[in-house]
Amino acid sequence: MANSWFQFKHFRVEQGACAMKVCTDACVLGATAPLATAKRILDIGTGTGLLALMTAQRAPEAFIEAVELDSLAANQAAANAAASPWASRLRIHVLSLQQYVVTAPGLFDHIICNPPFFRHSLQSPDAARTTARHTTPDTLPFSTLCASAAKLLTPGGQLTILLPPPEMQHLEREAAVAGLYPSHRITLHHRPGSKALRHITTFGQSAGLVATQALAIHQSTDEGYSTEFRELLRDFYLAF
Fold first, then answer.
1. 3-class SS letters over 6-66
2. Those residues with Cβ within 8 angstroms of residue 36's Cβ, 6 or more apart along the chain or in another chain
3. What is the pLDDT of residues 48-75, one digit of tens each?
4. What dotted CATH number matches 5-233?
5. How far apart are CA 50 and CA 67, in angstroms?
6. What predicted TM-score, i.e. pTM, was given to this entire model?
7. Which residue from 125, 119, 93, 115 is spatially nearest to 106, judged by alpha carbons?
8. How confident is the model at residue 2 (pLDDT cuts 50, 70, 90)?
């Protein structure tokens, strides 16, 4: 059974009320999204608030807004934000992305999202977990995600998304329709040379060459974490 909390170096994520718990690939997303010039950041589908908290730590001058459809998860994310060192720069909205867009929230320099992605697989009997993991027409289809992000980005703004490789291919097609194009891609692997588990792709508003990078979580010879992974998460994980 997963812990009801996950302790990082500078904040704690309580997660007992959330369908989706803190996971390694989401932590990699939070640690790698390019935020150097971001002053306003939006986290879509924040869940526990993990990505909002990680971006608040990494971008000390940024104001972060987050949206979450599930009220229990949103309330827990809000509590996690309030208990963090960055409470004044974090705001959690209990809204769907579709509802949030019509509130005219202003534009964002960076949008980050770990979206639902199982489009055709067997759904869980747990309704909250299904909503968190499965994209459906009444939750967050990729077309809506991309079109909404395109409306909410500043000129030169970026969108960074985490998905399995097949789902990322589908999302890239929807992104192109919305005028967003991949500029950088991290392929996340369990160990060097293994099958890619996830793609972390950053999209911009101009088409061009895509810079690619591979990241292995574990070393090739044992279950120990790789040097690259340790360096990436050093500011977050207690073990490093």
1. EEECCCEEECCCCCCCCCHHHHHHHHHCCCCCCCEEEEECCCCCHHHHHHHHHCCCCEEEE
2. none
3. 999 999 999 999 999 999 999 999 999 9
4. 3.40.50.150
5. 12
6. 0.91
7. 93
8. low
